[in-house]
Amino acid sequence: ASLLHKYKVSFGTYNMFGVPSETLEEVWRTVDFNREIKTTYPYGGVFHPFPGTKIIEDAMVTGYIPSDFSLEYKFNPMKFNNPYEKDRMQNISCLFYFMCKSNVVYYLSKGLVKLPPNKLFKLIEKGGSFFARRNTFNVGFWRTFKIGWQLRKDI
Questions:
Q1: Nearby residues of 131 by Cβ (< 8 Å), 6 or more positions away
Q2: Is the pLDDT of residue 112 over 90?
Q3: Could you please report the per-residue DSSP string of 102-122?
Q4: Residue 71, SS3?
Q5: How far apart are the C-alpha atoms of 116 and 69, rounded to whole Å?
Q6: Rounded distance, CA 91 to CA 47, Å?
């Protein structure tokens, strides 16, 4: 990352949270790593299983996913050691962009992620996408705002 910064090359990272057997402590280390390397475009999302992949087969064997899992499932069937972990990982993914970019948000998020997932977190996630795409694709503010306004129904 230091070479990329030295030559002013923008770069992004894509991070998955909630991979089978991952702990919240490991998720926080991922956040800290992204802050340390000062990624231009940090993105984080919750792992969603896809049938037929090696990781899913392994997760079925270890009990993280039901053995009858298929695309017919209407929700993410991942099992966590603590019932609150899935919610916290979802909240971290919503706040991830701003956690990586702002010290204030990072320190506030330590408590915020304990709240139940809600529309405010989704709105914050959309805001992070707004700024990241604006910066990544060098799109002007008003064009980005117009696209965001059109996508507001997704919140």
A1: 97
A2: yes
A3: -HHHHHHHHHHTTSPP-HHHH
A4: coil
A5: 26
A6: 13
